[in-house]
Amino acid sequence: MNVRKTWLAALATASVATLALAGCSGGSEPADDNALEMWHNSTTGDGKAYWDEVAAAFEEETGVKVTMTSVQNEDMDGKLQTASNSGDMPDVFMARGGGKLADFVDAGVVKDLTELISDDAHAAYGEASFSAFTVEGATYGMPVAVLPQGMFYSEDLFADAGITEEPVTIDELNDAVEKLKASGVEPIALGAKAAWPAAHWYYGFALRACAEDVLQNIAVDLDFSDRCWLQAGQDLVDFAATEPFNNGFLTTDAQEGAGSSAGLIANHKAGMELMGGWNAGVIGSLTPDGQPLADLGWFPLPATDGGAGDPTAMMGGVDGYACSADSPSTCEDFLNFFAQAEWQEKYADAFDAIPASKEAQSAVTDPALQEMMAAYNEASYIVLWLDTLLGQNVGNALNAAVVETLAGSGTAESIVDAATQAAARG
Amino acid sequence: MTETATLVAPAGAARRAPARPDWRKRGEITLLAGPAIIVFVTFVILPVVMAAFYGFFRWKGFGFPDDFVGLDNYIAILQDPTFRSAVGHNFFIVIASLILQGPLAILFALLMNQKMRGRSLIRVLIFVPYVISEVVVGTGWSLMLQDAGALNSLLEKVGLGSWVQSWIASPSIAMGTLMFIISWKYIGFAVILMLAGLQSIPEELYEAAAIDGASFWQTQWRITLPLLAPTIRIWAFLSIIGSLQLFDLVNIIWGQYVAATAGTSTMATYMYLNGHLAGNYGFGNAVAVLLFLISLVVALVYQRFALNRDTAGALTGDGGRKKR
């Protein structure tokens, strides 16, 4: 009896205290028109300095203070999700479009920017870069950079190995791999530990194997029955059979430290790497002196024979920023502010990347980037990274299945099966 | 709680005290137990209940879940061969940890219970890996064991090039590598427990054995081990639970994607990969519930058949009273 009463008393205290605690956290602050909070993924160096500079200039012009928060790239999605559930979203946050953005749009936490993006930005960017941020006809993000996929390579190591021409076909690529092996360096660096760099090879083969409409529709119908998905898997298996990747690629990181795949390129341990447009900056930060790699070259992923995809088509990503649903109108003002050519030029410089604004593309001076930009602008069409396009669920399953196949415990069929199963689960 | 009740109730009844002191006592108990109960309910009971709730939904982690799918998540998990192999890895780790660490820890403890030079230094050295954070240990070992890492370079330099292996990625070796790292990391904890157990064994028993002419090994077998048994059982329990919930070392050394192909994935890394990274939070919560249930069943079975000898009287009220 006594015990039961003690328990009751304790529970009563507990519930009162819980209510009190809930009371403390329940009140949300009204949106302040003169302050913005922004989450970006530049944790060090020029990129971080760039955003601080943008914030200072915006405050000077409009009096609106922008508070910058650096979030580690891999933590961004999870933190945004937590913030969205607690009703504490940052006003401006990084977005990469595709299925991931669509999940946020579904949850009603992103602002529709269709009517709010300035005419100047529309004119300067062209519609292509906005398409990554378009969900069911509405635009939800302001692009800052386009990041096409391609092969980054060391011109010196290619010359040492006796490779005189950039490979254009898979046969020529296989040839280059053999020559690099013979010259005593790792042919292709691959950071498969994080899975997505390995999956990029599969996406690359799918880009060549699948017709444009198959790729453009896949995010909606999630139908992997077209033979081209199997063909891409087979191309990957055949290519991997030539053992083109660095020793121990399964446990190699992509971007952290000298032993990572980007580090192997930066330190002349490996000849080339298939990667997105941000790689020039990453490689630059991993060279012994921290300067851009002087002999860095670039060429598009060589074409396989006889696929339904256009040989000039490219895969890539678009980095951009979105506003949360309840952000003040100064949020879109801020997006339109840094979309101006002046700030896009500075962005290109700070991030070693191709700015989304065509007006600012003359600011790109790095030869590897210039070559990438030319190929991007001439591409017949652009497909977003498949894992971004398909969203977290299917994208993640696809990435994991590709790693399994490269590790020798999967087949072309198992990649397609994994994607199909995940599609059914999500 | 039961013990307190039997002590408190007769005292109150005998004195026939007025209501006020009784209320004071209740107030005291409430005040002292309240904060702990709030924390326990908020951070242990509530999340478990919520995980069970979310596990019945297809939920992307935004807002309130509304797509009820019943047991679909559980069916999908149990049909997934990668989950079943992860469970297999977990139970392999449970058994291998007991077999590898138990005897070694007892031997180390026996050794360090002798008076010898440098004893405290050896104790510190054995205990250091346990104190270092899992992240540091994981990063350190993964750098050393990479294909182009320190260990393979060393083997090549000393002319053992044929021993060079893909220590982390190769499915035939990876589990052995993991067991080596786990043993190295956690044996210090087992040794410390065993040492404490050894030191609680009364000296007189050894003296009596010596007078009776028992040999060293007879003494260990007849006196030390039986009296150390409660310590061993508690250690084994902690080791089993730790092995079932293993996450950090695997996640850091192998990463989420390579762990499954290398054969070191655990239920927890499966949950992280397919729940968090895939953004399927309903599915992930269902995995969490299964992990909880499996651990609970193992813990209860172990308590029933092994630990009850030690806890009789302390936790099981009736059994204890009868013995007294």
Automatic annotation (TrEMBL), chain B:
Keywords, ordered alphabetically: Cell membrane, Membrane, Transmembrane, Transmembrane helix, Transport
Chief localization: membrane
Membrane topology annotation: Multi-pass membrane protein
Residue ranges of coiled coil: none
Localization: Cell membrane
Membrane-spanning residues: 29-57, 91-112, 124-144, 164-184, 227-247, 253-273, 280-302
Any single Pfam family the record assigns to this protein: BPD_transp_1
Residues covered by the ABC transmembrane type-1 domain: 87-302
Stored PROSITE patterns: ABC_TM1
Top-rank taxon: Bacteria
InterPro entries: MetI-like (IPR000515), MetI-like_sf (IPR035906), UgpAE/MalFG_permease (IPR050809)
Family, as annotated: Belongs to the binding-protein-dependent transport system permease family.
Name of this chain's protein: Sugar ABC transporter permease
Organism classification: Bacteria, Bacillati, Actinomycetota, Actinomycetes, Micrococcales
